[in-house]
Amino acid sequence: PGAYHGRIKDAIDNCGDRPIIIFFETKQKLDAFHQSDKMASLKHYAKTMHEETSQDEKEGLIRQACASNSVMLLTKEFGRGTDFMCYDENIRKDLGGLLVVLTFLPAEISEERQIRGRTARQG
């Protein structure tokens, strides 16, 4: 887990002010990363969202996910049917928009496309 967690932390460190959402295959893997030494410096502002998160809290977290410097850790269930909208033109144009990171290889290519497409709907 050390190298795996290190690569995820590197993705966070290298995104600068760009918001980042990181998808984990399971809640256990999300929790393991969130509790790891690699996350020690980020725990105060990194947000987590999984199946047990309340509906009200989910709605607020989804809105916050596209803010500058946002770090959001999610389970793969949010890769389908959850749209992350970025209305800040500075983030979209100057920073490159929301960075989506998969920490696992989906069993189906359609699942990967769904997850990557979470930020494509800018309405």
The number of E-state strands comes to: 4
> In percent, how helical is the residue content?
25-40%
Distance between the termini: 38 Å
Give the overall shape, derived from the CA principal axes.
globular
Strands across the major sheet, in which order?
2-3-1-4
Beta-strand share of residues: 5-15%
Q: Which runs of at least 5 residues are low in confidence (pLDDT < 50)?
A: none
Cα-atom Rg, whole angstroms? 14 Å
Structure description:
- With 123 residues, the chain is an alpha/beta fold.
- 36% of the residues lie in helices and 14% in strands.
- It is built from five helices and four strands.
- It has a four-stranded parallel β-sheet with strand order 2-3-1-4, with helices on both faces.
- The mean pLDDT is 88.
Give the helix/strand layout.
Layout: H1 2-13, E1 20-24, H2 27-34, E2 47-49, H3 55-64, E3 71-75, H4 89-94, E4 99-102, H5 109-116
Parallel strand pairs: 1-3, 1-4, 2-3
What keywords describe this structure?
globular, 4-stranded parallel beta sheet, 5 helices, alpha/beta, 4 strands, 123 residues
Short synopsis of the structure:
By secondary structure, this protein is an alpha/beta fold. The protein is built from 5 helices and 4 strands; from the N terminus they run αβαβαβαβα. It has a 4-stranded parallel sheet with strand order 2-3-1-4, sandwiched between helices.
